[in-house]
Design goal:
Blueprint (H helix, E strand, L loop, with lengths): L2 H58 L1 H12 L6 E6 L18 H4 L4 E6 L5 E11 L3 E10 L1 H52 L14 H73 L4 H30 L6 E4 H19 L2 E5 L5 E4 L1 H18 L5 E11 L10 E10 L6 H6 L17 H11 L3 E6 L5 E8 L4 H7 L1
Parallel strand pairs: 6-8
Antiparallel strand pairs: 1-4, 2-3, 3-4, 5-7, 8-9, 9-11, 10-11
Helix pairs in contact: 1-2, 1-4, 4-5, 5-6, 7-8, 8-10
The structure holds adenosine-5'-diphosphate.
Amino acid sequence: MRLAAKLILIFLVAVVLLTAANTYVAIEGQNASFEREQTEYAQRVGQSIESELLLTWDQQGDAAVDALLLGEHSSNQLVQIRFISLETEAPGEKQPVASPESLSHVARGQIVSVMVNGQEGAAWLHTYYPVISSDKGRAALEFSRPAGELQQQNRWAIYRAMATIVVLAIVGVGLVMYAGVTLVGRPLDRLIEKTQRIAAGDFADPLAIAGNGELSQLARALNDMCEQLTQHQETIRQESATRIATLEQLRHADRLKTVGRLAAGIAHELGTPLNVVAGRAGLIAAGKLSETETRESAKTIKAEANRITLIVRQLLDFARQSRPQRADENVSLLTDRTISLLQPLAEKKGVAITADDAERIVASIDSSQIQQVLTNIIMNAIQATPDGGQIAISIQRKTRRSPEQTEGDVADYVRIDVQDNGSGIDEQTREQLFEPFFTTKDVGEGTGLGLSIAFGIVQEHGGWIDVASQPGDGACFSIYLPIQPTAVETTHAR
Ligand code: ADP
């Protein structure tokens, strides 16, 4: 229900209650004064004739008393007086109009008034003045006055009250409606519209509500709030812009650092074999080498050239990192294929590879890219594991969120664990593990590109790589790949 309607309802109820209470009090007052008037009259008349009446009654009987009353008061038309008996065995014409129960106090000497409805519906007020004779018994003077006029007055009072209610309702409802709509309804509608605009983020156009009442105060408070919100919004916008600019600078610095490292790595990685090639080529060109030495030098040049080719190929792989060409692939079979490729190398090193790939999980992946990831990681494990060591590979399905997600839907991933019992990885190495050209291996053994390539490929697939390791206690690389391309992947790919 709208506020104006509620106000009108409250007003109407108040008008009805107040008018009804006022009318009730007025009617009660009229009744009381009517009764008081008659009681006083009965007392006055009763006291003035009581002794004479008792004497007459005791000496001459009831008929003489009636005659006495007739003679004394016949002129009074308004109030009729009767001498009645309070004894139960009295004849009918001597019985009181009021019921004997209501007259018990009269027998004890009190004046009592009783309103009785007559036969035609008209009410009469009967007042009883006690007359007690030790000889004749208990009797009373019955003063009867018609109360029709009083009832008429009461009826008028009720009609007046009803008319007042109707007039007040019409005038009041009109006034309340006018005041409710102009003073409350319209300003409230504007306040509601303003709060809706605030909720939608529009803090413009301050609200003007005239006056100094609560609603105009509320409007002013809303305007102040909007001003503060606008200021906060501006502060946040400026802070965000500063943060974005700082982030951009950091990214730029980071890119420069990476490029620097990359250049240093390339220079170092290619410099060494190129020096060897140049040195050996110089010796051959000088013509001072024997035939065997020349052949040996040529072999060294070929080996170093191969190494340069490998580095350049890996560099190309790293730089290319194209979007995966996905197809449904059985990850267990792919892992098995990769293991059999690397098996001879592992055997040569005296390392056993076991695979727990009972669960056949099919995922949408670029099989050649993921094979490269597996090769790089398993190769590292073989290199880190001493003779007699073991590498355990297991494949499981995992339903979870990515490490970057704190909320949102979970997704299905295939997790490939490559666990070795080799040298393990210390904290410092772990921080640089995926950086290009970071290697702890001797020159010629590692290029430092394997894990950064693996990291890039897995990220392009929408997955990630976890590393768990304690120095001296082996390392476990866990590759997470989404079974289906996910929204996460798109985020990563960007
Ligand atoms: P590379 O193998 O050519 O050195 P990677 O990027 O593949 O380059 O590896 C970087 C470094 O990470 C390695 O030099 C090695 O120190 C460390 N590493 C990688 N895998 C393992 C492993 N399974 N155990 C111990 N160290 C490892």
